[in-house]
């Protein structure tokens, strides 16, 4: 969750949504994202809305403490119940992200989940995920999460090479994420993800192959592989600017993506979104699919974003300001925007084109349809789905996904 918030109109103090936001809500899934903004240390590449203990000291006092964070976030879930009124939907997904959610006691994470269960209920077979730093969990912690209702866990692996982890300022040791997969399986987790990053300065193709092989060998049913984006204002950006580490170029990113596709496909993983592979349909991250398909979700926590029925809003960033708003009975919302039909059409193209089943050609304007025809001729969109009325990226198209999207939207 990026730390920079957009502009927007004010959010009402009670968080009230326009009446149209819940029109047809029963036909849309509802999920919850719970943001835990705490980290033990700040990774050099990270631009997310996260805070170390030193960064919070003296800037919000006890209100920003992680000791009472579970109850603070629970207040926003209760606010969500008031705002959504008699909306009968039960939560189909819950995703706890950060930050490092597993810096909190397992009991705090299950307590937050329990408030969603009490206020909204959980759908049969609901997907309940938490992110985890490999060094912040052990078998007992994972067993407590599983007993508390979590059924999916996502570990931040990033790389199997120590020198790559060092550039990223990751604190875990090589081999620990793979051990975490085994511990999660032993605790009863059926669905386990490993997050990888490629394109770190100093990483070689062989380093990347070793990371992929280590991830696959650990036995998860889901792997996410993201190209490193160097965000302005981060420690890594400053190091690159000073010439301490080299910048990885787009051609290297493309080569690494092709290696990932080759290695993961050979191991029985299939891509279902440009940066995500799963061994089965059940192994896909259903929560992320809510985002990509424009469903409804409530994001609770500092800086968290929400979307319900074409209304998108975001919370204040700082944990102290967030807690203060809730303590005063106010929505922590910092701003919102009401999406028009054209906005929603464009967003559907932007997000759905990244999926393995693509987006309907019917979403495209005349100029976009002409661009789609050219993309088929250029080998960027698959011809057979195109004939059936869908725009689906080829492997080459996935390498140039952002450019293809721009052409179809323009």
TrEMBL record:
List UniProt keywords, sorted A-Z: 4Fe-4S, Chaperone, Cytoplasm, Heme, Iron, Iron-sulfur, Metal-binding, S-adenosyl-L-methionine
Location within or outside the cell: Cytoplasm
Presence of the UniProt keyword S-adenosyl-L-methionine in the record: yes
SUPFAM superfamilies attached to this UniProt entry: Radical SAM enzymes
| InterPro entries registered for this protein in UniProt | Aldolase_TIM, Coproporphyrinogen-III_oxidase, Elp3/MiaA/NifB-like_rSAM, HemW-like, rSAM, rSAM_sf
Is Acyltransferase found in the keyword set?
no
* Radical SAM core domain residues: 24-267
| Major location (coarse) | cytoplasm
Its biological function?
A: Probably acts as a heme chaperone, transferring heme to an unknown acceptor. Binds one molecule of heme per monomer, possibly covalently. Binds 1 [4Fe-4S] cluster. The cluster is coordinated with 3 cysteines and an exchangeable S-adenosyl-L-methionine.
- Family membership noted in the UniProt record: Belongs to the anaerobic coproporphyrinogen-III oxidase family. HemW subfamily.
Q: What is this protein called?
A: Heme chaperone HemW
Query: What is this organism's lineage?
Result: Bacteria, Bacillati, Actinomycetota, Actinomycetes, Kitasatosporales
